[in-house]
Write a structure and sequence with these properties.
Strands 1-8-5-10-3-2 form a 6-stranded antiparallel sheet. It is of the alpha+beta class. The chain is globular, with a radius of gyration of 17 Å. The protein is built from 3 helices and 10 strands; from the N terminus they run βααβαββββββββ.
Amino acid sequence: MKTYFATQIYQKKMAFDLPDLVAEIRQIQAADKGGKAWSQTNYKKGYTSYGSMDRLHLMSSTFEKLQKKIDRHVQRYLKDLDYEASLKNIVMTNCWVNIMPKGAQHTAHIHPHSVISGTFYVAIPKGASAIKFEDPRLSHFMNAPLVKENAKIINQRFVSLQPRPGDVILFESWLKHEVPTNETSEPRISISFNYGWV
């Protein structure tokens, strides 16, 4: 038997000064009144700059440096996907921070109008939530039986990837994903981003 129509998710370690990044993220959070107000309505118990400052790579030299490192991984991922596209015509369009303290969650969603999306993980406490991806065919299964609990990974309907600090995870923007509730006492801190057509 052969496998077709694969969904490829990219996960690699990326060197970066994480303590300095945490300090800058905390400064952004402290100053971002609009983001805190947006988060109260749209990101219960957590904080994100998505609703206020979502182009941090154009506002901060630290985030610009981060973008250049992420660019190299996106280029490799585009090559793995065999796309006729490169960083000449697909660029980082959005970049924002996320802080998930205990009790915060990020419900299932996609990233419309983008090509590649991803997250760079800054602080992941032991036992913090993984990122959970949904099989994109799920709505088409109709009368398909449930898969076994110990089914091979390629047959699972949901896959969770546990990130580590310094990991970058990339996926195609149409792939539905979520972050279940953070049950740890320490915050889960990450930087999310989108790449789209120039």
